[in-house]
MFS transporter
Amino acid sequence: MSSGPGAHSAPAPDENTNHTGTTAGAAGPKPSTFSSLRIRNYRLFAMGQLVSNTGTWMQRIAQDWLVLSLTGSATAVGITTALQFLPMLLFGLYGGVIADRYPKRRLLLFTQAAMGLTGLALAALTLSGNVRVWHVYALAFVLGLATVVDNPARQSFVSEMVGPRQLANAVSLNSANFQSARLIGPAVAGVLITAVGSGWAFLLNGLSFIAPLTSLLMMRPAELHGVETAPRAKGQLREGLRYVRSRPDLIWPITLVGFVGTFAYNFPIWLTAFTDEVFDEGAGTYGLLNTLMAIGSVTGALLAARRGTSRMRVMVGAALLFSVLEMAAALSPSFWLFAALMVPIGVIALTFNVTANSTVQLASDPAMRGRVMSLYMMVFMGGTPIGGPLMGWITDAYGARTGFLAGGLISAVAAVATGLVLARVSGLRLRIDLRRGRRAVAFVPVPGGKGRESIAGAGRTPAASQPTAPAAVPAAAPPASPSPARGEDRDHRREVLA
């Protein structure tokens, strides 16, 4: 995938950077599993995020359990989750405009501080014994407002720290970082809730934000891969939407992410319901289930880091397999089978998430990346205000198994539909071959087919598709006219999917 024309605006590489204008799959040594950590700024960022992510997972577990304790309702847990992500649905695109308009490191200093303060406020209410469920609702919404800007700024800031060639690796390590914290956070939260109550988990989360703030302040701005900020102008939101709409390699992955994120990622609802209603267990078991999923998630993220490239067939296949595993877990007859399935669910969920994230980032022009990632995060997280209450209601009304099964089924239908659309756009068809030694399921070119609109080259500029800019460009040439020949472009998009 093209990294966009703005990728060549970065400073010359030095010992702390590994920058090139080519895509992640271009010629050159394949990134190792931890290659991004050789870059000082990213190493500082990763260490700060590991501490903060651990606190975030502690708060997430403690918050879910606190709401369930106050109300006894899975719907209330869903409402809390929905309120936390409602601002992303309402204002997510504006967060992307802000991320493209201002230096991302400065924005992150503000948003991380605001998120830490929400944790401290919830700790004060809980430890004083005055907490009510509406307090949790209100602070979840305030936290969501901070993430409106934090998410696109943080996602797109990764490329400024590591450059386009290491982007897929860094995105994978970010996910491994987040999920590694998930190994620690839920376990610590379970102990704290049982021993001294939820308030201490909230307090430690609030204090954990000191780590990312310190890491941001210690960075060397001169070693960042500079990207010009977008000047303040009218119509930037519409410009971002038009840009995504014109790019099949962006719009379809984002659509699939929206369905999976809205209907299949409601684990706080389902795991609390299975723990409390199906298995009749307590907070320690809830923490165990989250820890098992985190083990799988870390494994999936590290495997993705080793790949170094992103293919749409991996993304679609992972979404489908993830959905099937969810449905299998929903129907599992015993606790230990259900718990064991949390590990592969974590592996495949992170494979899907990392592949979709890096695919979209690598395909985006750096000047548009904040707006593209805000749309990505809006549909991934912002769909929760719709899916959370809906899945919570189904779970309360028809049982935990039915709710979990419904989420997996909707996600499976979306994965199959997206795969078929991407194949058609690419001039490919699905082939099923059960003969020995053959790939059982594969996408192959349609005989004589020419494909439709480009998956890999739509909206791509000459600078984005070549290692160096052409010697001369006509002054009247449109800035975003596709340059690859039709046949070459069709071959490229087929390779990405097949």
About this structure: The chain has 18 helices and two strands. Residues 433 and 439 are 7 Å apart (CA to CA). The longest strand covers residues 428-432. Strands lie at 428-432, 441-445.
